[in-house]
TrEMBL record:
Keyword tags: Ion transport, Membrane, Plasmid, Transmembrane, Transmembrane helix, Transport, Zinc, Zinc transport
Any one GO CC term of the record: plasma membrane
Compartment list: Membrane
Entries under InterPro entries matching the protein: Cation_efflux, Cation_efflux_TM, Cation_efflux_TMD_sf, CDF/SLC30A
Domain of life: Bacteria
Gene source species: Citrobacter amalonaticus Y19
Gene Ontology MF terms in the entry: zinc ion transmembrane transporter activity
Protein name (Swiss-Prot/TrEMBL): Cation efflux protein transmembrane domain-containing protein
Family matches, as Pfam families: Cation_efflux
Chief place of localization: membrane
Segments crossing the lipid bilayer: 20-39, 51-69, 81-105, 117-140, 152-177, 183-201
Residues covered by the Cation efflux protein transmembrane domain: 22-209
Keyword Transmembrane helix: yes
Amino acid sequence: MSEHHEHHRHHAVSSGVRLYWALGLTLSFSIVELVFGWMSGSLALLADAGHMVTDGAALGLAAFSAWLANKKPSEKHSFGWGRAELFAALFNAITMLLVVAGIAFESWQRFMNTQPINGLSVSIVAVIGLIINIIVAKILSAGQDNLNVKAAFIHVLGDLLGSVAALIAGIVIWTTGWTPIDPLLSLVIGGIVLSSSLSLLKNSFHRLLDGVPAPYSLMELAEKLKSINGVVCIADLHLWSISAERSALTATVYLQSFDLWPEILHQLQHEMNDEGINHCTFQPELISDKSLDCQDILCTQLRY
C-alpha cells in the first residue's frame, strides 16, 4: 500500500470517527428536544429538534458513505466508491430543503393560531442543546476538508444558532408571555438551514457533474504546469472529484522532445501533489508547426 493511499485511508477513518461521535450526540439530544418541545408546546424547540434529527440522519448517511469511500478500488469500480460521499451530500441537501418547507408552514400556522408555551422548559432544554452543539462543532471542526464533514459542521452551526434562538424564545415567553417570538425565531432557524442547504446542494451537484472542485482554477493549474522547464503548452486539461476529498486530473503535455519526459513527468506530478491532487494522468505529445496554437490551446478547449 502506497504512503498516499495509507494517508488517505487514515484520514477517511478519522473523518468517520468524528461523524460517529457527532451522530451519537446529535441524535441523543434531538430525542430530548422532541419530547420537551412537544410537552412545552414550543415550535422553536420542535424546529430545532427537527433540524437536529435531519442532521443526525445526514451524519449517519455521511458516516456510511465515508465507510464506502474507504473501500478499495475493484475491477467493477476502478475509482472505488468515493462518489458515495457526493451522493450523500446531495441527498442531505434535498432533505434539508424539505425540513425548511415544513418549518415555514408550521410557523405560519402558529402565527395564525397561537398556543401556550412553557418558556422555562424551553430555556432549560435550549441551554443543554447549546452545550451539546458546541461539543459536536468542536469534534467536526478539524475535518472540514471533507465535503460531508464540512456540511455536517455547517449543519451543527445552524443547530447551535437554533439553540440560541430557542433559548431567547424561552426567556422572552417566560418573562413577558409574548408567544409570537416562538414562530418568528423558528423562521430564523429555517433561514439558517435554507442557506446551508442551498450551498451544499450547489456544491454536491457541481461535483457530481464533474465540475472543477473549489478552489481550483483550470487556467491557474495550466499555467503552473506550463511553467515547468521542457513543457511547451498544456491541452485537454480536466479536473474532477472522485470523492469528497480526492480529485483526479488528466492533461495532454506538449513537448519539443521526449528526451526529458521522465524528469518532466516527475515534476508535473510533484507540482500537482503540492496542490493536493494526487491522481494524475499526463499524455506527452510532440509539438510541431502544424499543431494548434499553444497560446490559445487551453482557451479553445474551455470554449467547448
